[in-house]
Task: inverse folding
């Protein structure tokens, strides 16, 4: 394809890392996972990191952990404020744990939650706020953090699309009580499958470690705040304290992650350079609405909304892209409320959901990669110029 949605960012280092794990003959979660967790936490300035087998699993153990805190745990029937546009597995754990969702519209320009609606979204049952920075662009994390603190809410930050983004000199993924990241193919770093949860709270870290592996204590130190150790390895080896899963990563994922993490700064720099060119070519074109940066985006890709006020039609644009061999997708799945799965949810909308629908009906994105895309972006410009003529 001339302009792919996603490309591999691996080099020889990642293949060597896989080779080292194979040579070690030790594949299941071990020292490489711990090493990667320590490196990742340090890189982003968090106290603790818990790696999982995907970003979705990181969201699952993050959500679950809030239900098993000793003080003020979340409970079934509590309410969560969420944006109307995000990936399905931002929401699924919330549904699975019996929360009622209150959907808030997004801003068309940033594609992130419209924080003007937060007060209206609050009810006496609200206990959780979920922030998602869409496609590399920080949402108003400072406002969300303050709102959560002012109202005594937990703040879960799904940062699976925005590794390396910054707001006010602070990394996205570190504003929430827990922040999650994805290492799936096409994300800022890739470990085949993989994800991680960051937190500064030791109790949440230990709960997530137990939830990641069967709900047991095996991976916890004897002085953990989440159980009273009997200091007996025989029982502690198979001791279960929370209803957990098995969402462990392997040593291969962690070994690749260690190599990819070293390249992250360069990857983000190149993505930002591509973004600068994209913005230069598209920002002043009223036919298209492109993402307005809040803070410093790490530019996952290039979302474009065909301005409903223009005479352009998305179908024509997508056909032109297809003909030109340019990959595209709907923006993060579009308005989540428009998916069949919503019938399984307990939810309400806070006011009208207008902008998530516009993104759903008129938007799409093309890829950004940690490689120079000058040729591809210029061609995208030419194709969009002639689409619909
Ligand atoms: C916002 C968001 N959350 C969660 C995920 C899930 O991550 P994974 O694919 O690693 O399960 C994604 C995936 O792209 C995402 O965009």
Result:
């Amino acid at each position: 394809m001339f302009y792919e949605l996603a490309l591999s960012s691996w080099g020889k280092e990642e293949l060597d890392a896989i080779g080292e794990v194979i040579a070690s003959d030790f594949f299941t979660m071990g020292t490489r996972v711990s090493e990667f967790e320590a490196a990742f936490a340090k890189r982003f300035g968090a106290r603790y990191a818990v790696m999982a087998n995907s970003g979705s699993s990181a969201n699952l153990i993050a959500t679950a952990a809030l239900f098993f805190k000793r003080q003020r745990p979340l409970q079934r029937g509590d309410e969560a404020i969420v944006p109307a546009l995000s990936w399905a597995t931002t929401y699924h754990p919330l549904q699975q744990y019996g929360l009622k969702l209150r959907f808030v519209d997004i801003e068309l320009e940033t594609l992130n939650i419209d924080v003007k609606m937060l007060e209206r979204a609050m009810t006496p049952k609200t206990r959780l706020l979920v922030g998602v920075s869409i496609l590399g662009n920080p949402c108003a994390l400072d406002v969300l953090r303050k709102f959560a603190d002012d109202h005594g809410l937990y703040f879960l930050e799904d940062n699976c699309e925005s590794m390396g983004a910054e707001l006010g000199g602070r990394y996205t993924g570190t504003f929430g009580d827990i922040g999650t990241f994805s290492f799936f193919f096409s994300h800022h770093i890739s470990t085949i499958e993989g994800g991680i949860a960051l937190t500064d709270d030791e109790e949440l870290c230990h709960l997530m470690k137990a939830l990641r592996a069967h709900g047991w204590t095996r991976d916890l130190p004897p002085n953990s705040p989440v159980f009273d150790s009997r200091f007996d390895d025989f029982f502690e080896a198979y001791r279960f304290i929370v209803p957990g899963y098995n969402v462990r990563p392997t040593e291969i994922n962690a070994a690749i992650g260690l190599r990819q993490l070293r390249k992250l700064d360069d990857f983000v720099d190149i993505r930002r350079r591509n973004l600068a060119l994209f913005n230069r070519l598209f920002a002043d074109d009223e036919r298209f609405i492109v993402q307005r940066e809040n803070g410093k985006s790490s530019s996952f890709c290039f979302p474009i909304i065909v301005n409903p006020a223009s005479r352009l039609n998305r179908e024509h644009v997508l056909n032109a892209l297809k003909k030109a061999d340019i990959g595209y997708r709907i923006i993060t799945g579009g308005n989540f409320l428009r998916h069949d799965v919503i019938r399984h949810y307990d939810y309400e909308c806070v006011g009208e959901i207008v902008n998530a629908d516009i993104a759903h009906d008129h938007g799409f994105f093309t890829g950004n990669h940690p490689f120079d895309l000058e040729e591809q972006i210029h061609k995208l410009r030419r194709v969009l110029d002639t689409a619909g003529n």
In short: The pocket of pyridoxal-5'-phosphate is lined by residues 54-56, 59, 86-87, 89-90, 132, 158, 160-161, 182, 184, 195, 332 (CB under 6 Å).
